[in-house]
Amino acid sequence: MFHVETIAFDKRFVMNDGVKRDFELIDLMEFSGFKDAKGKSIFEGDLIRIDYEDGPSRGIVEFCDGFFGFNVEAEEDRHPNHFSPFHENDKPVVIANVYEIGSRGKKSMKEPKLLN
Question: Where are the domains of the chain?
Fold first, then answer.
């Protein structure tokens, strides 16, 4: 992950500590303002898991209609696929980030090894 200090939309690059990267080489991810149950910052594109009373749900964090939520992957017809808001009180756990586990820009729902 590359933390951004400067963003130049007109020239299509980001910069941090004197290192410049073109937009074509990166995927910009917005910080949700939330941390997971282990204290890790949650970003757009993170694959998270939340253990609810009726079972676990997991999905990819996205910003939609003015708030962060996650696209819940249906598990055994328990819930249909849907977009759901979440909060730190739900104790989400970041499993991975889709841009780190899949091919560039291709979102994958497969659960990888847990990140430390």
Answer: 28-101
Decide the pairing of beta strands 19-22 and 55-64: unpaired
C-alpha to C-alpha distance for 15 and 4, rounded to whole angstroms: 6
Would residue 28 be called left, alpha or beta, if left means φ above 0 and alpha means ψ between -120 and 50 degrees? beta
For residue 100, give the 3-state DSSP assignment.
Answer: helix
Question: Residue 7: helix, strand or coil by DSSP?
Answer: strand
What is the rounded CA–CA span in Å between residue 105 and residue 108?
9
CA 67 to chain centre: 13
- pLDDT tens digit string along 7-61? 899 999 888 888 898 988 877 778 888 999 999 999 988 999 998 888 888 889 9
What class does CATH assign to 28-101? mainly beta
The Cα-based distances of 53 to 1, 56, 90, 93, 108 in angstroms read 33, 8, 11, 15, 26
Polymer length in residues for the chain: 116
Q: Find where tokens 């073109």 sit.
A: 22
